[in-house]
Amino acid sequence: MKVETIAAVQGDHNLHNYEEVSSDFNWADVEKEFSWSKTGKINMAYETIDRHAESDRKNKVALYYQDQKRHESYTFYEMKRMTNRAANLLKAHSDLEKGDRFFIFMPRSPELYFAMFGALKMGLIVGPLFEAFMEGAIYDRLDDSEAKAIITTPELLPRIPLDRLPNLKTVFLVGENVEEDGKIVDFKKHLHTCSDRFEIEWLDKEDGLVLHYTSGSTGKPKGVLHAQYAMVQQYQTAKWVLDLKEQDVYWCTADPGWVTGTAYGVFAPWLTGTTTVIIGGRFSPDAWYKAIEDFGVTVWYSAPTAFRMLMGAGDALVKEYDLSTLRHVLSVGEPLNPEVVRWGVQVFNKRIHDTWWMTETGAQTICNYPSMDIRPGSMGKPVPGIKVAIVDDRGNELPPNQMGNLAIEKGWPSMMRQIWNNPAKYESYFMNDKWYVSGDSAYMDEDGYFWFQGRVDDVIMTSGERVGPFEVESKLLEHPAVAEAGVIGKPDPVRGEVIKAFVALNEGFEPSEELIQDIQQFVKKGLAAHAAPKEIEFKDKLPKTRSGKIMRRVLKAWELDLPTGDLSTMED
Ligand code: PRX
Q: In what residue span(s) does the AMP-dependent synthetase/ligase domain sit (predicted)?
């Protein structure tokens, strides 16, 4: 069979020859790009901001920020001053110390980034939260991490159960006329009175950087801790994969509550001193194309669901905007359909470069590079210096074209360093002390391209967001009508998957459209809108193992009209 390929892009790329670079690459050489290679002491905020503020890039724009109300820009020098102020503010109004967990729970705004990098300058571990999270989701994360402080807005504050979080000593509020008390501190009021000079807390390479909570198929969300050293891979992939150069204007559409929004929203581009665009507010095709035109975006990193929505908005719309500045387009988070890649070539005259990685990998891991032919539907090839393989359930490497576990050889620079408070869980990711097992199934073709096949577990990817079925099931069970709940991902042409719940009702409750809506609202209010089941189907009883575990694979088979497979463990 002939494989569809889209030829490499001609031009001068940072990664000029994949094979040659891959055959002889040493991560230790990348360390020399950073000042800490001389001092031994590291700080992400210094490498992303201050270093440039002290160089020829002093007056270069670091951040363009835009939403419906604000349109602002900050040079690297201004970012240095604002983040110093934020660091002084956090220090003066709390007892936060190096290594403490500082959470961010607010919509995108310049203040979010001042606070984030101010906290990093203090040596705090930053925990970003998605703005759509509701009380239950917030509580689990702040409680597990023993967070000491948070920055939020008056609108979101009611979702933080302060009385149940004894460790949470300080709340920085970004709003107007904030009423301060022993716990609440007015962030904006103090920001401009704080000094713009700050002595950075110098850290070790292995000290904590960010704590991202993410979902698995069992248990509550777990805290994935990354170390400062992750910057080595984030920097190098900004070069090779994002192909960033001095004149670029870069836009990553991801929310800072997810790993893409930290690692590639700000860390990777700023490590290379690149001008970065942040757009606040909700997705809209017009606003997105307009942003590319307004800022002259050259490198654009987004996600399959967004591309599919843009596709759905029609090609005529594309012609209303000047998108001629775009030179490199990338995607992450879910499988990128070949159809979308073809659409990209047709309407933007650009290849959309798929990239694969996860919260746990800390940086891009398998990618398509501009200097390499694309095979639409393939995630591409491993980042040079990282060994990726397909292994069986015992950890033996499989030959090309055989489907198995997508695994990465332990020890890549941005590998997660801990699951917060849960060393056993951390260890469970690794096989034979050699392979990190991703939970994805895939195969590699004879030319070394990797092809995603699905999740091995029941994790749901909806609109690129990772949702653990257990978390949704637990919330459903809190609803007075729900006796049993099983949650699966149902394939959807735009969102990848949507969440479908099967529910058995308690005595005295009858299925109805009203009850469906009530249960949906309950999950929306308790967890997050994106975690609420789009579909609910009532059943008298759900398929369970004899030990009482809901058999999601049977639910999925029912849903998709597939054979149910081995039912020997199912209760009678
Ligand atoms: O199943 C894979 C899918 O997203 C999972 C990781 O989710 P998360 O930790 O939220 O990180 C998302 C962005 C870094 C993976 O296990 N995934 C991510 N990228 C791709 C993908 N599936 C297919 N193709 C991709 N390019």
A: 51-418
